[in-house]
Amino acid sequence: MSEKHFPLTRNDLEGLAARYPTPFYLYDERGMREHARRFLKAFSAFEGFREFYAVKACPNPYILKILASEGLGADCSSLPELILCQKAGITGDSVMFTSNETPESEYVYANMMGAIINLDDITHIDFLNSAVGGIPEPICFRYNPGPLKEGNAIIGKPEEAKYGLTRPQIIEAYRRVKELGATRFGLHTMVASNELNPEYFVETAVMLFELAGEIHDETGITFEFINMGGGIGIPYRPEQIAVDYDRVAHGMKAAYDRLITARGLGPVKIFFECGRPFTGPYGWLVTRAIHEKHIYRDYIGVDASMADLMRPGMYGAYHHVSVPGKDSEKHDHVYDVVGSLCENCDKFAVQRQLPVIERGDFVVIHDTGAHGRAMGFNYNAKLRAGELLLREDGTITEIRRKESIDDYFATIDFKGLSSFKV
After folding, report:
1. Of 77, 171, 284, 330, whose Cβ has the fewest other Cβ atoms within 10 Å?
2. Total Cβ atoms within 10 A of residue 33
3. Which active-site residues does the annotation give?
4. Mean pLDDT, to the nearest integer, of 173-194?
């Protein structure tokens, strides 16, 4: 079971909302730090182990700086994410650049800052070589196992995914970069998202360790690191169980000893690039009930919308909902909790049993610290929520202000509008 906790009382929220009107995101620094330490300790049996936090999960430099101080690197997929890392003091080989359909300018920038470049396609070898004047080292490729490995609901079947190289392609790719002078190599895959079965990650490790041996036999190269990707999920539902990191690490180490050490292919550093587990459970979207409606169903309308959190509408994803101050009351009312977007999928909860909710009540949506604010958008001219950080000493700091109407209009030339002829 996964206990759902929110660190502030209703009175705390009233005071906070007077300064920062809802909706807003709140993150817990202590929770993120403690999780990072627990994760790194579990995998400490692998010498040189590294976690590259997936910046896309929560692209805020304050969060990145906290995680970097705990020893995490960063996984980036775009130029702005690379710049965010630099501003947070993360650079060099503490950055993994895993992108696809990548513009030349982004490869140039990643190479300039010394990031590890992870290529998504065999044709990108010549593209990168031309862009930066050689093959950067270490060089890495993303493997797509196709039907040999089952994906999951969010990321889909590997054979239908646009990412990575096939088995024959990846062997040819390493042979090609070796011919171009490369001497340091990494191997990567990413085949699941939000997966809770610990054995899935052990099986992924076995797949990559076996592939590393096959590539060695075919090309003569040995690997400096193997990146397991991300995909470790979190228990969004209270009845779900979090991934046991010690169990995963133990299974991976046994596979490593059998498939890498015993074959004389080591030492190989082991990396992960998870995002969700490091910030997801330590973030909440705080909104307020502003309307109620009773037709064929009972609805509670809140001042946040799918533009603030799209996962429920996009994936049908479950997020736990609580009403501060009413935790001990009977959950004997069934509601759809909805936003104001002109889309019927703009729902945070569907037919959810909750305590009676009245206008003015705070409604807290849990486990939104990853792929929450980051996936926000401006449809219906909605302005995205701000972000607050609960520090370890109990103080609260604004780390991103709420968007304003001026922000929304900033890219439009209104001066030119007056002379625009129609």
Report:
1. 330
2. 17
3. 342
4. 96
